[in-house]
Amino acid sequence: MKAIMLQGTSSDVGKSVLCTALCRILYEDGWKVAPFKSQNMALNSYITRDGKEIGRAQGVQAEACRIEATADMNPILLKPKQDMIAEVIVRGEHYADMGAGAYRSDYVPTALPVLRESLDRLAEEYEVLVMEGAGSPAEINLKDRDIANMKAAELADAPVLLIADIDRGGVFASLVGTLALLDEDERARVKGFIINKFRGKFSLLKSGLDWLEEHTGLPVLGVIPYADTGIDAEDSLALSTLKLKKRDEEGEALNVAVIRLPRISNFTDVDPLYDEPGVRIRLIASVAEWNNPDIIILPGTKNTTDDLRWLKQTGLADAIGQAARDGAYVVGICGGYQMLGRELHDPDGVESIYERSEGLGLLPIHTTFRAGKRTIRVEGEVCGVSFATGQAVTGYEIHLGQTMREEGSRPLFRLDDGHTDGTVADDEAVWGTYLHGVFHNREFTRAWLNCIRLEKGMKLVEGEVHTESERREASYTALAALVREHIDMKKLYGIIGLPLPVKS
């Protein structure tokens, strides 16, 4: 098996997106290709078909390869849940909650066989591996226990390309400085650079590229322009960029406030709202940013109880309650759904030190936290709201809590496995669900937004609604075309050690 690894000069330089592009490019060129990231730290996760939990980036990259994602593609996932404490997920399943020190001293020394076994299994099935690093390979205080960068490249005997984000500035210093801090054998693995997120005039950059190549003896394979790719973000570092900088809607628009919880997770759930015309969406974290929203969304969280207490401390809980009484629409997803209930119980201390917490009281539900996470893909149909009754829906669940509806309340979805999900208030203005990806059911989302527009006397949004799979496929294809245009494919193929495809 051949491999190529993309490492970054820092976090959020675009490694995940560029790996996605290479996955699609190599697939288009006829190779059996798969993604790999040895260790991922992210709260945006992905559920495989067999119910394993991995980093969302590797799930997306597998989609770009048109293959099913497996736990081997991200054998270790870290999900921060409190300061310096993270859930450690190994091969898609909960392993332990560990502090940073204990993880580095106790688990990391045992991790290499796990990574090697995953790589060996992938090598049996695929011809090329597109590997993604984490953060920077040159964190000198962490290098002795870094299994996400050069150690992973060594295990796969993969050449490395260094990625730098020119949009944030200091691109030449970050590339040269990273090389300088690598050990000699690590520097020997680096075969070139890619500069990402370029907005300027190329002629003004050219002299710097020439100097970089002469100074380091390594080629710059490409300069990739800044673009909103439509690809799911890997983690919360992307919250201040990409789709969260959607242009302001002109004229009449629904005012949507997404609560930026301190431990927000799977925030890609709200991505489809950025694609909807007539929607002005904002992330808010204080009452000062309130601005009377028409719709309030409480997203998922890695720690429902702590984030619920934060809502109350900031005054946002009171603002949400008053807005609901005044006619605003409120939606909760996963942890946000749990918060909308009357009570949350944690008798065994599964999530926090608090045995009982009072919820926002907007839905007639009670949640109890128990050991054993539910991670599953689900399908079903809408049954609890008038605007989309009978529509098919898909999604995935990742949660610890077990939520019970009070007698007489109605669910939102009827699932194919015989269960029901979610709860709907009597007036349908407040609802919640455990289904991550609920808004990716585009017909459902359009019907819900138009129902609100109708109630407010606003003009309905008409026209064709493309399915989520159609949108994602278009994004992967467009991203691949963009990167092909701005990268030296001959040099890339040479570095990987593959023959350049013959154009038909």
TrEMBL record:
<dbReference type="Pfam" id="PF07685">
    <property type="entry name" value="GATase_3"/>
</dbReference>
<protein>
    <recommendedName>
        <fullName>Cobyric acid synthase</fullName>
    </recommendedName>
</protein>
<dbReference type="InterPro" id="IPR002586">
    <property type="entry name" value="CobQ/CobB/MinD/ParA_Nub-bd_dom"/>
</dbReference>
<dbReference type="Pfam" id="PF01656">
    <property type="entry name" value="CbiA"/>
</dbReference>
<dbReference type="GO" id="GO:0003824">
    <property type="term" value="F:catalytic activity"/>
</dbReference>
<feature type="active site" description="Nucleophile">
    <location>
        <position position="334"/>
    </location>
</feature>
<comment type="function">
    <text>Catalyzes amidations at positions B, D, E, and G on adenosylcobyrinic A,C-diamide. NH(2) groups are provided by glutamine, and one molecule of ATP is hydrogenolyzed for each amidation.</text>
</comment>
<comment type="pathway">
    <text>Cofactor biosynthesis; adenosylcobalamin biosynthesis.</text>
</comment>
<comment type="similarity">
    <text>Belongs to the CobB/CobQ family. CobQ subfamily.</text>
</comment>
<dbReference type="InterPro" id="IPR027417">
    <property type="entry name" value="P-loop_NTPase"/>
</dbReference>
<feature type="active site">
    <location>
        <position position="436"/>
    </location>
</feature>
<dbReference type="InterPro" id="IPR011698">
    <property type="entry name" value="GATase_3"/>
</dbReference>
<dbReference type="InterPro" id="IPR004459">
    <property type="entry name" value="CobQ_synth"/>
</dbReference>
<dbReference type="InterPro" id="IPR047045">
    <property type="entry name" value="CobQ_N"/>
</dbReference>
<dbReference type="GO" id="GO:0009236">
    <property type="term" value="P:cobalamin biosynthetic process"/>
</dbReference>
<feature type="domain" description="CobB/CobQ-like glutamine amidotransferase">
    <location>
        <begin position="255"/>
        <end position="444"/>
    </location>
</feature>
<dbReference type="InterPro" id="IPR029062">
    <property type="entry name" value="Class_I_gatase-like"/>
</dbReference>
<dbReference type="GO" id="GO:0015420">
    <property type="term" value="F:ABC-type vitamin B12 transporter activity"/>
</dbReference>
<keyword id="KW-0315">Glutamine amidotransferase</keyword>
<keyword id="KW-0169">Cobalamin biosynthesis</keyword>
<dbReference type="InterPro" id="IPR033949">
    <property type="entry name" value="CobQ_GATase1"/>
</dbReference>
<feature type="domain" description="CobQ/CobB/MinD/ParA nucleotide binding">
    <location>
        <begin position="4"/>
        <end position="230"/>
    </location>
</feature>
